[in-house]
Automatic annotation (TrEMBL):
GO terms for molecular function: RNA binding. GO terms for cellular component: nucleoplasm. Keywords: RNA-binding. InterPro entries: Nucleotide-bd_a/b_plait_sf (IPR012677), RBD_domain_sf (IPR035979), RRM_dom (IPR000504). This is RRM domain-containing protein. The lineage of its organism: Eukaryota, Metazoa, Chordata, Craniata, Vertebrata. The keyword Cell cycle does not apply. It comes from the Eukaryota. Residues 19-98 form the RRM domain.
Length: 109
């Protein structure tokens, strides 16, 4: 059984566990610092990207965040935050393939 939190091995697809999560349904008021504070309790964060970024000139109705943990086992723990109300919205936390968050950046902007 896959204890790393990624869905590939647990389902038998032969995929390696991911260390990245995608967090959606974020309030437009959320900041990178708030996201880092929330998820740093679950494991060491290697990289965090919030879209649109804190300094975006336009207002958006919601944001999306990608968090890359040093240890893939943090992904499984982070998924337990799904439906947790943060600021004014229920978070949706799912595993995300490595590198996918970089492709999403180019699609969004």
């Amino acid at each position: 059984m896959n204890s790393g939190g990624g869905f590939g091995l647990a389902l038998g697809f032969g995929l390696t566990p991911t260390a990245v999560i995608q967090v959606t349904n974020l309030s437009s008021a959320v900041t990178s610092e708030q996201m880092r504070t929330l998820f740093s309790f679950l494991g060491e964060i290697e990289e965090l990207r919030l879209y649109p970024p804190d300094n975006a000139p336009l207002a958006f109705s919601s944001k999306v965040c990608y968090v890359k943990f040093r240890d893939p086992s943090s992904v499984g723990v982070a998924q337990h935050l799904t439906n947790t109300v943060f600021i004014d919205r229920a978070l949706i936390v799912v595993p995300c393939a490595e590198g996918w968050y970089l492709m999403c950046f180019f699609l969004l902007f």
